[in-house]
Amino acid sequence: MATTGERRRGRRPALDPNERRRLAARIAKMVLVDRLEQKVILQQLLRTEPGLGHIDASTISRLYRFALDSGIVRVHIDENAPFKPPRIEGLERELVAAYELQSAIVADTAGHDETLADPLADDRLHQALGQLCADYLDTIVRQNEVIALSSGRAVFYACESLFNKHIFDKRNVRGVQVVSLNGNIAAQVWSMESPDARRAMDADISGAWLARAFPDARLIRLNLPVAVRHPEMVQDWLREGPGRWISPEVWEEKARAGNTPGAQPDEDDVCVPTLALVGIGGVRARSGHRFIVGLHEPMLGNLQPELGKMIELIERYTGNGSPLLSCAVGDICNRLFITLEARRQLPAHALTELEHYVRSINERLLSVTFEQLYLVPKVVVVAGGASKIDAIRSVLEWQAMGWKQPIVHDLCTDRETAIRLLEMKRKNPRSR
Questions:
Q1: Cα(204)–Cα(104) distance, rounded to whole angstroms?
Q2: How far apart are CA 8 and CA 60, in angstroms?
């Protein structure tokens, strides 16, 4: 007869059906998501659930098999999933030298010119860039990083790809904070999943994906609209609450005092980002740009009628019948700028009209300024495609744009964009 305190021999007590499913689900998560070995799983279960003292390694195996067989675990194989392209190191070195970048990532992928006419080709290119950018981010994000994001498809896909990568390959990077750099548009983008599918492209959405890629990341949602009706209202939105995270006055104050993101901030404290991931947009009529896709969204109503008139003006010079420019207006963090090529090619009267629309829109935006990006130690840009050549080049040629210092430190782009950027640099070695 077994004595008191001794483990009872013989048949183990059967698990309640609901308890069995709960344990099977937990074990499946430990195997597939946390990538834990059987021995470690058993140790964790015995430590956290003393009532399971009767289970052993064979029980773990049986419950995992039960999870697979009973539908608790569902496997989805997507043969149309985006292909992660290889990098072209030669072009990367040339870009770094030509534009004085800290790093460059060039994807060996096709579809550059197709992005002008085919929304799915445009989306496919953005997904490819997002995958390579995620791999790069995985090497540079450090403990206590304050990561800021702009809106845009490539940024979204980079964040989603990093989350997917960390499901099976977790890095113990802690203390990360993730925040948006601009307000939301509530516009959506085409998806590879189906010609009719859509995905949100706001920075708050991308931030949610990125924050889930790190163990204890803090997500700061701005929950702001992209713009207000009158310029005088901008300061009201940025004076308190989440808006303080993109307030120029707060950033300048933090910069003077010395931003210390390594220290644990108070719940309502604001930190200037130590790393920014941004896209560069090219505003073209009938394109996938978020201002075009979201033209009739309520949150862009505050930018009318100037936005509509600006798009009509742009279409006359960048439409299919007038390929004078790849794009006349670009954006970073939803803040617009007139490209260098537009300044050279547009008639004086059209340029004056365009400057009026851009200025009128920018002064109503809830977004960081170009000057604020000067304060970020590392700005990574992910952008590519034929519609953005002039916009990307303008940002890289910061001196010709009249900016005080470079905004971009690292660039992730596609092969054809890199080649054309280098050709432009060779033709105009000293842009003015």
A1: 26
A2: 20
Tokens standing for 202? 């706001």
Domains within the chain, CATH numbers bracketed: 17-69 (no CATH), 89-427 (3.40.50.1360)
C-alpha pair distances (Å), 191 with each of 186, 197, 295, 347 = 16, 5, 19, 38
Q: What are phi and psi of 147, to 5 degrees?
A: -105, 125
Helix then strand then coil, in percent of the chain rounded to 5, is 45, 15, 40
- Count Cβ atoms within 10 A of the Cβ of residue 145 and give its class: 0-12 exposed, 13-18 middle, 19 or more buried: buried
Q: Residue 137: left (phi > 0), alpha (psi -120 to 50), or beta?
A: alpha
d(CA 374, CA 372): 5
Do residues 173 and 145 touch, judged by C-beta distance below 8 A?
yes
pTM strictly above 0.85:
no
* Alpha-carbon distances, residue 42 vs 7, 66, 264 (angstroms): 17, 16, 34
Residues 20 and 167: their CA atoms lie apart, in Å, by: 25
Per the DSSP assignment, residues forming a β-bridge with 199 are: 189
In total, the chain counts a number of residues equal to 432
Query: C-alpha angle 154/278/201, rounded to 5°?
Result: 45
Task: Kindly give the confidence (pLDDT) of every residue in the chain, 432 residues in length, as a single tens digit, with 9 standing for 90 and above.
Answer: 444 444 444 455 677 888 889 989 999 888 887 778 888 888 888 888 877 777 888 888 889 888 888 888 877 665 555 568 899 999 999 999 999 999 999 999 988 887 777 777 888 888 899 999 999 999 999 999 999 999 988 999 999 999 888 875 566 789 999 999 999 887 666 554 555 555 667 899 999 999 989 988 999 999 999 999 999 999 999 998 899 999 999 999 988 877 554 445 555 688 999 999 999 988 877 777 788 777 777 778 899 999 999 999 988 887 654 556 778 999 999 999 999 999 999 999 999 999 999 999 999 999 999 999 999 999 999 999 988 999 999 999 999 999 999 999 999 999 999 999 999 999 876 654
Q: Could you tell me if 42 and 56 are in contact, meaning their C-beta atoms sit under 8 angstroms apart?
A: yes
